[in-house]
Amino acid sequence: IQFSDRESALTISDFTMANLSQEGLTNVLNKMHRGKNNQITDLYPLSPLQEGMIFHTLHDQGDEHVAPYIVQLSFMIRGKMNIPTFEQAWKSVIQRHEIFRTGFVWDEIEEPVQVVYENIPFKVNKEDWRTMTSEEIEEKRKVFLALDRKQAFQFDEAPLMRVTVIQEGEEEYRIVWTHHHILLDGWSLPLVFNELLTVYQKRMNGEAVKLPKSSPYKKYIQWLREQDKEQAEQFWREKLKGFTAPTLLGLESKEEEKGYTEKVTYLSEEQTQALQGWAKRNKLTLSTVIQGAWAYLMSRYSGENDIVFGVTSSGRSTEIIDVENIVGPFITTSPTRIQLMD
Fold it and tell me: Under the cellular component aspect of Gene Ontology, which terms does the record hold (predicted)?
């Protein structure tokens, strides 16, 4: 299959991790090259988490009240800022971490795959609101953030992220970074920001940028493929034996619109110390105490003594070399079962 002078004919032997036929590979390459001139460097499967995110994103398409897995971060930078240098710093980060140069394909092939490009075009969007009053800026910001969050990403169009710099004052810049959760998890955020600011500062100082070689997200997919699925299934079947239905809270919801919200509660210093002390005396972690309290609450609401709920963890196995520095989505949500005594 010849797509460009740079890219020779590719076969399934070039992508050993992808479970594709030659016809499936042809469909992927045709789709990902349509109207583009970007060389493909790798193909490999998705993680279960990524597959789930694609499913739910497609399932909720068209619902104006839901923006599934769209992550939007907004923050201010005060002081002089060189936007072209900031853009170059982002390009360096994108080039170092292949997850940012990745698109996703799932139709007309044997299994979904992620497609890594050698290079992708990227630019920082710019807005200038300096002529507006503070009240006008606040109102425009609300509208901008809402519209930006609703703007969906095309899974086969890398990068699945955008960055906007809004100049609100002479030395006031609002940065809005919006991306799909399929690219990275919360652990990855400080890795990206630290690298971005390091590159930006060095470029501003005219210094050479030398960063250690980054490990690709592919290492995690390879590790997943090496796990014993039958053993894992047997473990969970035994763990959940006898549990037949989800735990229902028994609360009626009058809300007709879809969406989500959150409530944050802060404990006082005295309450925190008391809770930590109780956990220590009973040789429990604070996480175990919170999970036990949640199970008790669910039992009171549902009237059940056999409770199952999901617990999210980092998913970064120590078996993977340099896993703590890999940018990508690793989090896993596993069922936790707690049987309360009468």
Answer: cytoplasm
Task: Name the architecture of domain 231-251+259-339.
Answer: 2-Layer Sandwich (3.30)
Question: Beta strand pairing status for 125-128 and 161-169?
Answer: parallel
Q: Could you tell me the residue ranges of all domains in the chain?
A: 12-220, 231-251+259-339
**What pTM, to 2 d.p., does this model score?**
0.86
If we measure between CA atoms, which residue out of 334, 338, 335 comes closest to residue 295?
A: 338
Q: Do domains 12-220 and 231-251+259-339 have the same CATH topology?
A: yes
pLDDT in tens, 153-177: 999 899 999 999 999 999 999 999 9
3-state secondary structure of 70: strand
H/E stretch holding 264: none
Separation between Cα atoms, residue 4 and residue 206, nearest integer Å: 36
pLDDT tens by residue, 302-341 = 989 999 999 999 999 889 999 999 999 999 999 999 999 8
Q: Tell me how far apart the alpha carbons of residues 330 and 315 are, in angstroms, rounded to a whole number.
A: 5
CA dihedral 204, 172, 71, 103 (to 10 degrees): -40
Please state whether 251 falls in left (phi above 0), alpha (psi between -120 and 50) or beta: beta
Tokens of 24: 């499936």
